[in-house]
Amino acid sequence: MRLIAGLAFCVAVLATAPANAGLLGMQPTGTIRDDRPDASYLSLATNYPSVGLIQNPLFLASGTLIGADWVLTAAHVIVGVPANQYSFTVGGATYFGAEVFVEPTWTGSLYAGNDVALIRLASSVTNVAPARYSGATSEVGRVGTYVGYGATGTGTTGATIPGGVQRAGQNVLDVTADFFNGPGTPANRTYSDRILMSDFDSPFDPSESSIGSPNPLDLEFNVASGDSGGGLFIDFGFGDLLAGVTSFLAFGDDTANADYGDFSGATRTSSHVAFIQNTTGIAPASVPEPSSTVLLLTIAVAGGAWRSRRRFVTATERSA
Known about the structure:
The chain has helices at residues 38-45, 273-280, 292-314, and strands at residues 3-4, 10-13, 30-32, 51-55, 60-67, 70-73, 87-90, 93-102, 117-121, 143-148, 152-154, 158-161, 167-172, 175-176, 195-199, 221-223, 231-235, 240-251, 263-268, 317-318.
């Protein structure tokens, strides 16, 4: 896999909209394994009814209902149009925005890990249970389920089919993005530990794996254009919690198409509890401290990622 200096890849926004100023080739339902039926990914998505489709005059994206009238999404989905021009379709009905709230530290940089926003709906959703969001910080090493409405395709073809249909897929959350920082990382491309990262492992070619285990999960997945703002869920041992907001697709082969070897990046909800709770009044779900077994697993995953990082150093690097 060809890698980019510093972070070892470029990043792409996941909403199908004009790229934000200053982003490096950034573009983000997601791509799936070639050897698994799409029906399995569609079926998995039915377990996450709180994730809905966001539309505005410019593009489609995704978001998660976290309260009867609150939707959590990505900050780059909020593009300056009036709140009532954002629609949110969930549970078979469409609702419109009344107010939008962007994380105050958001500057337009996907690298900083502040890509979160909230939409207050003009009317309440009564037929869908809101997702509970997490404030736990023990995400690395766990299996995450990405849910969204983005484009799709396979790991071989990349995303070739337009979005608009809900899919879900899984990946191990290998590292936080600051793992990729190094001595040559430019100041304006320093990656934050507020971002969770996973790579799209190929069932056919272990060399496509850059971090963590090269073995793909049964429903291995990568986010794609239109998944922006969608939910990343983790089961910490007592049911799925919303632990991340899909932010970007990262790539190292000059093509932001979500094929094998590309990466998914999601902003951690645990890093933005104050913003979410102060804006909505909704507290995070209570998550017990991780057991010693989970801590050992996280250490083991970090060790595997470190071995992969050494491969990054020896790989051919390409400028952005």
